[in-house]
Amino acid sequence: MDFKVAGTHDGITAIQMDIKIHGLTRPIVEEAIARTKEAREYILNEVMLPCIAEPRAEVSEYAPKIVQITIDPMKIGDVVGQRGKTINEIIARTGATIDIEDDGSVSVCGTDLNAINKAIDMIRIITTDFEEGMILSGTVVSIKEFGAFIEFAPGKEGMVHISKIAKNRINHVEDVLTLGDRVTVVCLGKDKMGRLSFSMKDVKQGPYQSA
Q: Which pLDDT score is estimated for 206?
């Protein structure tokens, strides 16, 4: 008979048995369970307890991890992007694995917790409806004569007008910004044409900041 028992101080949590006889008597089963309890208590008290008295606050940096969040199902298309462009960009930048269910459940997996959190930040930014007062950080991805475009996450950009870049008047965006610069901006709400407006010079502490 092959008889395996797993459990804690409180009791048995799993049993696995392979038998090659026609049946077991009650005394045999009772004796087997009693002996496994003795063995389990010995392993818990004499072997495991001296090594680790309680679970670690965090798993090993090399262990696989999974973090789950929920987004608005109506925003799934924004995260996935056309032909998967956006989600593939997030995966390429972070190295995390992302699975999205139809109900908006998102599972972000990997071994690097920082990469997982970075991917989650990107997803949250993509699914956020920017509101006045929100503070975000992003990268300068395009410079025009009238201002600069800032990318906050794959597929999520905003424009800072040249008049909102610096507190002093500047004649050219390039006098202050170059492609690839990391900048912090605040959302000013929508302009007269209904477009979102951002500012660098008006940044103050706000309710939200991206990574």
A: 45
Please give the Cα distance from 51 to 46 (Å, whole number). Answer: 9
What whole-number percentage of the chain has pLDDT above 90?
56
* Structure tokens, 182: 């990391």
For the record, the structure tokens of 196 come out as 């979102």
Residues of the chain falling short of pLDDT 70: 1, 21, 205-211
Q: What is the pLDDT of residues 12-26, one digit of tens each?
A: 999 888 877 677 788
Output the six-digit token pair for 206.
Answer: 């706000």
DSSP the chain: -EEEEEEETTEEEEEEEE--SS---HHHHHHHHHHHHHHHHHIIIIIIHHH-SS--SS--TTS-EEEEEE--GGGHHHHH-GGGHHHHHHHHHH--EEEE-TTSEEEEEES-HHHHHHHHHHHHHHT----TT-EEEEEEEEE-SSEEEEEEETTEEEEEEGGGT-SS--S-GGGT--TT-EEEEEEEEE-TTS-EEEESTT----S----
